[in-house]
Amino acid sequence: MARLREAGHQAVAVTLDGLEPDPSPASAGANLDTHIDRVLTVLDACGPGPITLCAHSYAGLVVGGAADRSTRPIDRLVFCDAIVPADGDSWWDRVNDHYRNRAIAGVRADGRTVAPGAGKDPRRRPHPVASFLQRLRLGDGIDRVARRTFIYASGWAATPFHEQYERLRTAPGWEVHELAVAHAVYDEAPDDLFAILTDNAR
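The structure assignment produced for this chain is given below.
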């Protein structure tokens, strides 16, 4: 984020409900619509100028829904190893058994949030389970965005995105990049990600 700002871009990191450092008990019930509304609120507060929405992982559903519902035109969508949704999709439907089994195990503590898996990122938080289960209602908002980019991280065995990559790399209107790294692209390939976001990819 700091690097984008230093390059002259207005960059805003959106913290979704329930994923704050100290979330309220009520936010454990946040669903996909709650998260989409959070992004729309941020968009409403942004100044004039072109808008790029960038999503990682689950958040592809969120920015896809936000692009569809926003009253402001979206200039570019970047799905960074993220779900590129269609109408009726949910996180649960679009991931593989590896992640569904992790979610089942992770929700047993309180029945409302999915405990994060092992990892080094101190920002990892329990995730509201309703947001993983709710299906997205989507019109043609993603297709209306002129620039659509998918970044495929091919360097991890459990990826649920290989089929999506194979579909999008030959789909009209899509710019697709493959990076031989694991899912945390922002940690493992920050220079490549920055180049893609700023149109300087090799």
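Interim note for the steering committee: The domain at 2-89+136-197 is CATH 3.40.50.1820 (Rossmann fold). The chain has a mean pLDDT of 93.
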